[in-house]
């Protein structure tokens, strides 16, 4: 099976936890098959247990989606200082939309020298900072870009400093760009989502740290937006301006690409390892990763279908198929990333004082899973995997449409030889 285009750190940790699980079942042969699959896809990888495997993706290892020419973080230092792409000179506008009738008593603006500075942000952070786990993922890509611990100040605490008064329905926000309209990147949120978090959700934050380290320019620093339940296009990099507006509609750049720009992140599952061929009587290990969206995750399931068996057209999502539960593997003890000794700092949301998650899997994270297929007769098959969310709804439901985020049921061929 071809290696998925997934963050190397997520991939490496997956190899570790799934092999340990298979060996724990007494299936050293199955674990060996997984190791051979790993070696075939990445000859430099070692099947031995690696204590340095990491759940959190180091900043430099994130898969990157970016736009702009030139990219602001690649400019010379002198130019980055001039345009506010360094902490020393970064400023953020919180102002009324000039094309709206919004009223703001104390606008924070570079034009009148009242914009929020990085020093101002750090003063707020002394009392208001929050930290939470979030997987960064793209609306239209199959695999997660990376798993991070993000830290910042809730956007609402900055907005309230501008003393907003009336006629506010949305916040339009913009990243740095070079005045080329084709490269301009913008997004928006309802003001209600910014000021009040849905039950069990994290706040929208002005993010300045990833995995305990200052946010690099490549990752969107000095400051970027992080919208916990949303796909990456909502978490605009190189944040420069927030316009409070009475406009009822969104202004998101992604709308021009025929995307649903108000879509929450979906729960979905992907294969990582599965042999393409096996012999009759051989145990077949199957492993993968689940992206936990707004619906949560209660199960991962696998189904093996004979290739020549037609499925009823009135059941396009295989809801009546004989699915088998896989094992969702526990949360890691070593969180990795750039964290000292792989330990989470204090006060990470929804974690105990001892650094343990209050529940697992946790929304907006990834979870590893594994299972084995046995007693398969010779023939050609298609193997499928899917998730079941916390409400018992199977992937790709309840939102099967691509515009609101990719979550098609993953599939992979399998041949059982005599």
Folded structure, characterized:
With 418 residues, the chain is an alpha+beta fold. It folds into 2 domains: 197 residues, Sulfite Oxidase, Chain A, domain 2; 152 residues, Immunoglobulin-like (Sandwich). The protein has 6 helices and 21 strands. The strands form 5 sheets. Strands 3-1-12-7-8 form a 5-stranded mixed sheet. Strands 4, 5, 9, 10 and 11 form a 5-stranded antiparallel sheet that branches. Strand 9 and strand 10 form a beta hairpin. Helix 1 runs antiparallel to helix 2. The two termini are 20 Å apart.
Fold blueprint:
Layout: H1 8-24, H2 28-41, H3 77-83, E1 91-96, E2 103-104, E3 116-117, H4 118-128, E4 130-136, E5 146-154, H5 155-161, E6 164-166, E7 170-175, E8 186-190, H6 191-195, E9 205-210, E10 213-214, E11 224-226, E12 239-245, E13 268-273, E14 277-279, E15 284-291, E16 299-306, E17 324-325, E18 327-328, E19 366-373, E20 379-388, E21 410-417
Parallel strand pairs: 1-12, 14-21
Antiparallel strand pairs: 1-3, 2-6, 4-5, 5-9, 7-8, 7-12, 9-10, 9-11, 13-15, 15-19, 16-17, 16-20, 18-19, 20-21
CATH topology name of the largest domain:
Sulfite Oxidase, Chain A, domain 2
Which term fits the overall shape? elongated
> If helices are DSSP runs of H or I spanning 4 or more residues, what is the number of helices?
6
SS content category: alpha+beta
- Provide the residue-averaged pLDDT: 90
- Rounded to the nearest angstrom, the distance between the terminal CA atoms is 20 Å
Number of domains: 2
Strand order of the largest sheet: 3-1-12-7-8
Low-confidence stretches: 40-52
CATH architecture of the largest domain: Alpha-Beta Complex
- How is the biggest beta sheet arranged? 5 strands, mixed
